[in-house]
Amino acid sequence: MRIIKHFLVNETPISELSNGARFDGLFDIPVIEKPSKIFIPDSLTPFSERTKVSFLDSAVCFYEKDENFMELLISPAAYLEELRQFQAVVSPDCSMYRDAPLSVQIINLYYNRLLGSYYQRNGIYVIPNIRWGSEDTYKISNLPEKVAFSGIEKNSIVSISSYGCIKDLENRYYFEAGLAAMMETLMPEVVLVYGAMPNEIFGQYFNYAQFVQYDNWIKTRHKNGGND
Q1: Cα gap 60→87, rounded to integer Å
Q2: Main-chain phi, psi angles of 223, to 5 degrees
Q3: How does DSSP classify residue 31?
Q4: Distance of alpha carbon 116 from alpha carbon 49, whole angstroms
Q5: What is d(CA 69, CA 92) in angstroms, rounded to the nearest whole number?
Q6: For residue 212, what are the β-bridge partners?
Q7: I need a surface site. Which of 36, 57, 214, 226 has the fewest CB within 10 A?
Q8: Using one digit for the tens of pLDDT, what is the confidence trace for 107-147?
Q9: pTM of the model
Q10: Contact, 190 vs 210, CB < 8 A?
Q11: Could you give the angle at the alpha carbon of 47 between the alpha carbons of 209 and 18, nearest 5°?
Q12: Domain boundaries, given as residue ranges, for the chain
């Protein structure tokens, strides 16, 4: 079993990061508020690659290994001014491994929402990243709520990643199950998809929301000739 070592000690106190936030659900998950107007970024760039693009043309996302953005998780305030320059920020994609203890999954979900809410309250356009882990996070079974969707308002914009999530039958099964639960629970108006968006998985939802697909960073750089 993979146990995720994470950033429980933060240079900015949690009380400061959450000051002014609204909370949701059994675990008091910070809410990323629905924007007054939906904005769709031109592109999504991983945090570790942000210096290789024009901030006027991209939103920053965190669809990469956690260690690539660990410094931001530890010191979120240090990156506030830099992130303000980009079109938008997708809330951090902290790992939600299905075989991790449920408590660890919930902690990582909490940080996703906490930092998303923090940056939003400091003037950044934040798009909520939705990530589910084990079935307990997106079904009402051992928990009385679908915690993967806590802190997110309905009928808004969300972002998900299929990158590395649909390559084999087992991962695809859980991805499809979580996607179905997300669509039913949040009823989003716009869904950004980082990675492949095969019709056989997503097509059934095209009448219910606008889906916008973005190539993963490796594919994008390859198409652009790999020039930094």
Answers
A1: 8
A2: -65, -30
A3: P
A4: 19
A5: 9
A6: 192
A7: 36
A8: 999 999 999 999 999 999 999 999 999 999 999 988 999 99
A9: 0.91
A10: yes
A11: 75
A12: 21-223
